[in-house]
Amino acid sequence: xxxxxxxxxxxxxxxxxxxxxxxxxxxxxxxxxxxxxxxxxxxxxxxxxxxxxxxxxxxxxxxxxxxxxxxxxxxxxxxxxxxxxxxxxxxxxxxxxxxxxxxxxxxxxxxxxxxxxxxxxxxxxxxxxxxxxxxxxxxxxxxxxxxxxxxxxxxxxxxxxxxxxxxxxxxxxxxxxxxxxxxxxxxxxxxxxxxxxxxxxxxxx
Length: 205
Prior knowledge:
Elements: H1 35-48, H2 53-58, H3 62-77, H4 84-98, H5 101-115, H6 118-126, H7 135-149, H8 156-164, H9 169-191, H10 199-202
Helix pairs in contact: 4-5, 4-6, 4-7, 4-9, 5-6, 7-8, 7-9
């Protein structure tokens, strides 16, 4: 039987959904972090004003945190033929298919910040096909979404479509790698009910 939720009484404000809450549903105690990961968290506090909850979730195991952060930083921040905005756009389109609350909040905020366009951020969260995208970006997101929804159906015609949109072989690899990473991240976030930091919701509005 589904649990019953009490309705707010007349004149009573509904519970706020952006209140600080636990990072995830699993009660994993924080592990001992290496000096490099402690410095990484301090850098997050300095630059962002908070430690992203995805990092806090992985902090129960220093080795797993190190591996996750290294892969994320390489895919999303290292030099690539894809801009940082394009990589964030892929993250949002993939997360929209998977309905990942954490990643839509976090990476939707990143799209708003990097593009300077809050409407684009919202469109990508809801339905990227409704956005006025360039041929390059439409081809990029079509490929990322197909890889998410039906990876067994990806074929040479799909890769050739990216080439015709101006992507090189390395860039096609990077599109696939970013899309694949967020499919993994979405599933982990959903499995443990990872909650986004409240700060994401107000950024770049």
